[in-house]
TrEMBL record:
The keyword Signal applies. It comes from Spinactinospora alkalitolerans. Residues 1-37 form the signal peptide. This is Exo-alpha-(1->6)-L-arabinopyranosidase. Coiled coil: none annotated.
Length: 986
């Protein structure tokens, strides 16, 4: 794991001044004219320090002008020659939404490369293409890019799994640092683009995401969340973060004190923090956290939100709320200056106010988009991210010999799909295309999607028919119709959701104007995805069609109108038109027939990225759709030489395939070059070297409640999962073998600020070149707290020729072994022995060694001091809540009898009083019980908690204790509705 080093601030300023001063002198000597006069203003002098230039420009802007710059769409200031500026171009794995551009593998696929250098090159290419689009329309195509996503992939059901890199903070940190570094560029001052990390923080659930409060205990916050976000910012590669929609510990993430108290402390650079779309309005509208928008906007501004993304292009709402907040004295002009100064610092570094000849990225044009070099990089990235999950008896690579016939079957066999944040592919090489190209005249490919083709018939004998022209038209039940006009292919994407494609023109059916059904879409698409349906059986052989798009409609069912058109116009199934389904062709039988006649069958299954797992939609299950499972089984039984390719945005439970299919390969939706890259791997032109960036579980039953963000408590991700995964974190096979030699450590005893270099020889023992990802984990043998089973500390992807040996150097920093000590509220390196584990995956450890870290011992808890309730060691049935609307966490009751515990507490002074700071705003009884040893252990005190008048109306209560002594685990058991922020035993 070799992320790029931070850009030194002092060196950057020195280089900037050295290169700019000479040019500034030339500019000042230029003939007098209005433009030249404008350039002589201090903020346009590149020889001055950035801080002075920002201050000068701030001083020239009126208060109204400064407030206008707080919205995503910043207007021009003509009197100062300042052009419009827009935050928020999407660039997750390619330039999105602006037109054709190189589409690289999804982020989860980039994570599976375990190759920061490659990922940085991808980021560099995306940044270059973003500059190319910016050159065409600077106002519309902004250079502040909202990428990468660094939310940990803690649960594979998360709808946005495709957008993240990994479940592991160290791998996330390496990949995000690399990708953001490529987007940023390598100039010490100027930015190619300005990367913004998404989404800070605690975000991993789509359902009610703007209303949910996620409890994140201190250890998880520091050891899991912060460790994912910090590296790219500390390296100077990310220029800001985006706040997430959800609430964290009872407080909207847009008001998180961690923005200023943590994120901004990780760098000396100014960061521009942006809201998510409509996030500012949510604080009042859906979260109901403040009563008025001026209050909420003032709070967000003080919490560190600099740029408000709200109400689309309409900035009036944002301006009005901040002006009202100023008028009411809720914020000051200095608060506005702080936020605008951060925005301007990024704009300066993008080169906006400098002569273009100073900016190394100013001469990038649209010619850079979809360049031959980027096409080749797309193919390389697509190859490198593929993960060989199983390869029994050398089933792969395939022999591309003469007259070989390959059946490529399945719903993704001959199509490529884009996702919500994809760019538009300039061309597409599907799996069937790529395999056919690779075989050339040596063989042949037969393809089948494995989808049933049906005809829909009304009770009065009319068939549903579709227009045959490319633009499509309304579907009609208008008589017999030719079979081609009647044929509809049905694709099962799981959870009962299907898409319908009319064979008359090959277009997907969706909801269109007038709620009519049209066959006019290339693929499911859009924010609301209006191409989704369900068949509901009403009686034997008779069905109604339910519209299943993501937006909310009162009318959900399809009706045939008097004119024969199909529309979504019935509220209930009873009002809908009933259809019979006539099977014109059995998709599975067609696929089996093709597979049985071929030398090899390649089954390509997976997901459609707009369905059952995307933004706003979490998955209910992790299994393959039932129709795809049956297809895999049938084809494998028909042809024992079957290869399964899973092309998906997330892990799939494919236990049957692991047990029965000879070879299994995973790829993300890898962009325009997917087919070529797949053929490279299947035929051995490229030896797969990708590794899984997250755990693949055997079934959904192995997963916790999605709302449980605490991986320590839930026992998930490879760090804490004690079950048997289908495929472990870091898993991936190769066409060759690798042998690990004895590791050498340059030291086996280090202090808390020390570092160990581990050198391990790795030999390619096979007969072909290949890549190995050497992974180093550690495990702390003794600790005051529950430690992970293992934690990734370093890794390196290496390429070795057949028979070649290389010595890999990996490092373990004692500081990385630190954890958050809740007893003292700080990071600590504990005095302990650690096992160093080196291997090919988290469950394939080849070599072990040991080190001793001379850290500190954590003393017994001193509860005589004020102790934060949230700094518990264990808990059950409680939730973490906000102490105030500005800062602080407290513990609130969630379930009756919920409790928090404080382990190894020193009661030898025999404390006789509990004092607690509490709040509650409800009637009935509420109390805190103090128990020793367990939640049901001996009770030594109980205090009634009165109604304090509100959730933020804090009062102190106390009670005498009886029998506290020794070193004991202390439990506070909470009954009734109450909150506790702190307590002491004295």
């Amino acid at each position: 794991m070799k992320p790029r080093s931070p850009h030194p601030t002092g060196a950057r300023r020195f280089l900037r001044r050295l290169t700019a001063l000479a040019l500034a002198a030339c500019l000042l000597a230029a003939p007098a004219n209005p433009a030249a006069a404008q350039e002589t203003l201090p903020f346009r002098d590149p020889g001055l320090p950035l801080e002075e230039r920002v201050a000068d420009l701030l001083g020239r802007l009126t208060l109204d002008e400064k407030v206008s710059l707080l919205h995503q769409y910043q207007p021009a200031v003509p009197r100062l020659g300042i052009e419009p500026f827009r935050t928020g171009s999407e660039a997750l794995h390619g330039v999105s939404w602006l037109g054709p551009a190189t589409v690289f593998p999804q982020s989860v696929g980039l994570g599976s490369t375990w190759d920061p250098e490659l990922v940085e090159r991808v980021g560099d290419a995306v940044g270059t293409e973003m500059r190319g689009y910016h050159a065409q329309d600077p106002a519309a195509n902004g250079l502040n890019v909202w990428a990468p996503v660094v939310d940990p992939l803690r649960d594979p059901r998360w709808g946005r799994n495709e957008e993240g890199y990994s479940e592991d903070p160290a791998l996330i940190g390496a990949m995000s640092t690399a990708y953001a570094g490529g987007l940023r560029g390598d100039d010490p001052f100027y930015l190619k683009t300005a990367p913004t990390l998404k989404h800070f923080m605690g975000y991993n659930v789509e359902a009610d995401r703007d209303r949910l409060s996620i409890s994140v205990p201190p250890r998880v916050m520091h050891e899991y969340v912060h460790r994912a976000f910090r590296p790219a910012i500390a390296a100077g590669n990310a220029t800001g973060v985006m706040a997430s929609y959800n609430l964290v510990n009872g407080r909207p993430a847009h008001l998180a004190p961690e923005i200023n108290d943590a994120v901004r402390t990780w760098t000396d650079e100014e960061l521009m923090v942006v809201s998510d779309a409509f996030g500012p309005s949510n604080v009042v509208n859906t979260q109901e956290y403040y009563q008025s928008h001026p209050e909420s906007h003032a709070a967000m501004l003080r919490a560190g939100i600099d740029s408000f993304t709200d109400q689309g292009t309409e900035s009036e709402f944002t301006i009005e709320q901040i002006e009202a907040a100023l008028d009411q004295g809720l914020v000051s002009e200095a608060d506005v200056d702080t936020a605008v100064g951060r925005i301007l610092s990024v704009r300066f570094r993008l080169g906006e106010f400098d002569p273009p000849e100073l900016n190394p990225y100013a001469d990038i044009t649209a010619d850079a988009i979809d360049s031959p070099e980027h096409r080749e990089l797309a193919r390389e990235a697509a190859r490198e991210q593929m993960v060989l999950l199983k390869n029994a008896d050398g089933a792969l690579p395939l022999d591309p010999g003469k007259d070989r016939e390959v059946a490529v079957v399945g719903p993704l066999a001959d199509t490529l799909y884009e996702d919500w944040y994809s760019g538009t592919m300039p061309y597409e090489v599907t799996p069937a295309d790529g395999i056919a190209r690779r075989l050339g005249e040596q063989g042949s490919v037969v393809s089948s999607e494995g989808a049933d083709r049906i005809a829909l018939k009304t009770a009065d004998g009319r068939y549903v028919t579709a227009a045959s022209d490319a633009d499509g038209g309304p579907l009609r039940a208008d008589g017999d119709g030719a079979e081609d006009a009647r044929a509809i292919s049905v694709f099962d994407w799981g959870e009962g959701v299907v898409t319908l494609r009319t064979e008359a023109n090959g277009k997907v059916v969706g909801l269109g104007e007038g709620n009519l059904l049209y066959n006019d879409q290339e693929q499911p698409n859009g924010w609301s995805v209006q191409q989704l349906f369900r068949f509901e059986e009403r009686s034997e052989g008779r069905y109604v069609i339910k519209y299943a798009g993501y937006d909310t409609w009162n009318r959900k069912y399809v009706v045939v109108g008097d004119d024969g058109t199909l529309s979504v116009s019935a509220e209930t199934a009873e009002e809908a038109t009933e259809f019979t389904r006539e099977t014109l062709a059995d998709g599975t039988e067609e696929a089996v027939e093709a597979a049985a006649a071929a030398d090899t069958a390649v089954v390509v299954v997976g997901n459609m990225p707009f369905i059952n797992g995307r933004e706003t939609d979490d998955r209910e299950d992790i299994a393959l759709p039932s129709a795809q499972q049956e297809l895999v089984k049938a084809v494998t039984e028909a042809n024992p030489d079957t290869v399964l390719v899973v092309e998906s945005s997330y892990p799939q439970a494919i236990t049957w395939a692991q047990d029965h299919v000879p070879a299994v390969l995973w790829t993300s939706h890898a962009g325009q070059e997917t087919g070529n890259a797949l053929a490279d791997v299947l035929f051995g032109d490229h030896n797969p070297g990708g590794r899984l960036p997250q755990t693949w579980y055997r079934s959904v039953e192995g997963l916790p409640d999605m709302l449980n963000y605490d991986i320590i408590d839930s026992g998930h991700t490879y760090q804490y999962f004690t079950g048997d995964p289908l495929y472990a974190f870091g898993h991936g096979l190769s066409y060759t073998g690798f042998e690990y030699g004895r590791p050498e450590l340059d030291d086996r005893r280090i202090d808390a600020d020390g570092e160990v270099t581990v050198r391990v020889p790795v030999t390619n023992t096979g007969d072909r070149a290949g890549d190995e990802v050497v992974q180093l984990y550690t495990r702390q043998k003794r600790s005051r707290v529950e430690q992970p089973l293992k934690t990734l500390r370093d890794f390196e992807r290496i390429h070795l020729d057949a028979g070649e040996t290389a010595t890999v150097e990996l490092r373990v920093r004692a500081a990385d072994l630190a954890f958050w000590d809740v007893t003292r509220g700080r990071s600590v390196v504990e005095d302990a022995a650690h096992e160093v584990l080196i291997g090919s995956s988290s469950d394939d450890i080849r070599r072990k060694a040991g080190i001793r870290v001379h850290g500190e011992d954590i003393p017994a808890r001193d509860l005589s001091k004020e102790t934060r309730a949230v700094d518990f060691d264990d808990y059950s049935g409680v939730r973490i809540v906000d102490e105030t609307k500005v800062s602080g966490d407290a513990v609130g009751t969630g379930e009756e009898g919920g409790w928090i515990s404080f382990a190894e507490s020193d009661l030898r002074s025999r404390p006789d009083t509990l004092t607690a700071r509490v709040a509650r705003a409800s009637g009935g009884e509420a109390a805190i019980e103090v128990r020793l040893g367990s939640p049901t252990g001996r009770r030594i005190g109980r205090v009634e908690v009165p109604d304090t008048g509100g959730a933020y109306a804090w009062e102190t209560v106390s009670v005498e204790l009886d029998g506290a002594a020794g070193i004991r685990d202390v439990h506070l058991v909470l009954t009734g509705e109450l909150r506790v922020s702190s307590f002491s035993l004295t």
